[in-house]
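[Automated response] Your request has been received and processed.

Submitted sequence:
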Amino acid sequence: MFDFLDPQAPSPTPSQIARSLRWLGWIGCWLQSFLGFIPILVVIANVLTKPARQAGGNSFGLWLAILCAIILFFSIYWCFRYTRLANQLEGRELRPAKTQVIRELQLGLLANLSMIAIAVLIALVRVGELTFKMLTLPPGATVIAPTQVGTTLATQGALITPSNMIAIQAMINAIAAGLVGVIVALLLLYQVGRHRNA
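Generated structure:
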């Protein structure tokens, strides 16, 4: 399917490109859906619960997370769209121009790169906040646990909760989903770029 090492490899036919679009489109769609489940769930939970608990606060981070989730939805749809593009390539009367196919693949690549950039930015800020909380603990403190009702060994702001770890997992999943989309788009761009119009 992809012959990276042979510069004399024959030009792929439109049907071979269509097959690659279909397979990689479905692989990207399913992998991004699987990886994107946690980030989308975390964003929905934050949107539904944060405004009631905290007005203001980390609203910019929440907006970035919402933007990242929207781009993730778009990227999942765009991978599915590759499969529809494969159907168009197989029919001579519906076949789009090579430049249009490249433009659609570049849009998918751009969307996934922007999703990765936003998720990395959110992760840097979030992990930095958690690191700062850990550094504010007294020297030698190893365990933070409730001692009685309402009291803890450290201040409430210094606690690292399971929701913090779920948020970090969501950011890693969003980065991984974006990476899947980038790989799919680059492989397809390589295949389409090797096609020589006859």
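Summary generated for your ticket: The first strand starts at residue 146 and ends at 148. The radius of gyration is 22 Å.
If you did not submit this request, please reply to this message.
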